[in-house]
Design a protein that fits this description.
The protein is 38% helix and 21% strand. It has 161 residues and is α/β, with parallel strands linked by helices.
């Protein structure tokens, strides 16, 4: 495929093929492309909790992270996420919140920070703007849509801080 076509193809063994069509302006803002030479740089061993209220999207994200070496815990809402965190015997290194930001998400983040100041957070949303920035504060943000390599790069970047 021509490099300037704007079409990107990503696949992960055992998952569906994901095709992304991007405008030139979006392509310029995309995360660095990962290839076979640097894909291992995004591999991990840490524990990640994924809070995703849409089962299909959450399942895909969890499988991608698991295949990259992470231990993944999944929750469908903030209450379930909190129960998982309280019952999990080891540290949770990263919490990914994917969806419309709700007050119970903010409460979850606050409680988890009280439990462990080392826990990092990644908020994923298609929404942007100053109001969102004020709500999530210093936590990392990944705007939808994103590619699998962009997700893995962002996760590794946050965990390496």
């Amino acid at each position: 495929m021509p490099e300037d076509s704007g079409t990107q193809l990503y696949s992960v063994e055992g998952l569906r093929l994901i095709v992304g069509l991007m405008r030139a302006s979006a392509r310029a803002a995309a995360a660095p492309q990962l290839n076979a030479n640097n894909l291992n740089a995004t591999r991990g061993w840490e524990t990640i909790l994924v809070l995703q209220e849409q089962p299909l999207a959450g399942d895909v994200m969890c499988r991608v992270l698991e295949r990259s070496g992470y231990q993944v815990l999944a929750a469908r809402d903030a209450d379930e996420a909190l129960r998982i965190c309280q019952a999990h015997p080891r540290p949770i290194h990263l919490v990914i919140v994917d969806g419309v930001l709700k007050s119970d998400h903010l409460t979850l983040i606050s409680r988890l920070q009280e439990r462990s100041a080392r826990t990092r957070f990644l908020y994923i949303s298609g929404y942007t703007g100053a109001a969102l920035g004020q709500l999530i504060g210093p936590h990392a943000f990944l705007r939808k849509p994103f590619s699998i390599p962009a997700l893995l790069h962002k996760v590794r970047e946050i965990l390496d801080q």
